[in-house]
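B., you asked whether I could sanity-check this one before it goes into the benchmark set. Here's the sequence:
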Amino acid sequence: MKQRVFSGMRPTGQLHIGHLAGALTNWVKLQEEHECFYSVVDWHALMSDYADSSKLESNCREVVIDWLSAGLDPEKCVIFVQSHVPQHAELHLALSMITPLGWLYRCPTYKEQIINMQNKDLSNYAFLGYPVLMAADILLYKAGIVPVGEDQSAHLEITREIARRFNGFFGDVLIEPQILLTPTPKVPGTDGRKMSKSYGNSINMADSSGEVWNKLRTMLTDPAREKRTDPGNPDICPVWDLHKVFNNDEEQKKEIYEGCKTAGIGCIDCKKMLAVHVDRVLAPIREKRAFYEDNPRLLEDILREGAVKAGAAARITMDEVNSAIGFVRRG
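And here's what the prediction gave me:
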């Protein structure tokens, strides 16, 4: 039996191969099995980038193009922009009325992000209250399943707690979503840290073959391999982590693993083999991306139709929420 699925991404511009391996590949599978709603959550972008929203529209379009290029099909799922469905903001306001501040201050990533994003002023309500908006995004569509990585499961538990609290006050209106823990392969950036645009260490899905190679060529490897003749440890090498995700040649991977440990192959040779496999994965994505870039009207049609479908589901939920709260019915 099909269940309803919701997931979203902030519009940060072109997506990288970490997004592809960690989320999009799974989203494409889910659209074959369930009723999926995928949203570019542009309101969330303002929680930290409110001082300059000049790239917000173009970033939204880049994200959607990458989604479509990775295999999301508007005939099989609903693709839309969050701000195109005003009920997101409306339900967010309703839920903010009943969410205790203590829940928000205890959010596991709140203090972590305050530390990691010291270059931005995050002393605003939206940053503290973003779990409430996230809850509204999910609960608005009565999603039974929300795919998340293990590091995000605590966020979804706040959504479940908010749903329970609302239902405790106003009756059983909102559905507590179930967490669908999805495999989150380790996709390090070129400097060995988690791949992130903010770190400047990402390989984008839209990168050309040359750009991919230039980034991989300088990628950090096992620091113990100072010379070509030094044996290495692939288990601590970021390049090997990418092989595990993108290299589908099991025999070659065995050769690479043993070759690294015995200094049978050098790091450049290892990176060249990786570049071939990353390029194999990205080639059809680049082709689709070029198609959508050349057909902006098609992109607009997809987002317009997505907003209509999402809006129809959202209005049903908000009518039930408003009625349960006891607001005066509209004439």
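One thing to flag: The chain has 14 helices and five strands. Otherwise nothing jumped out at me.
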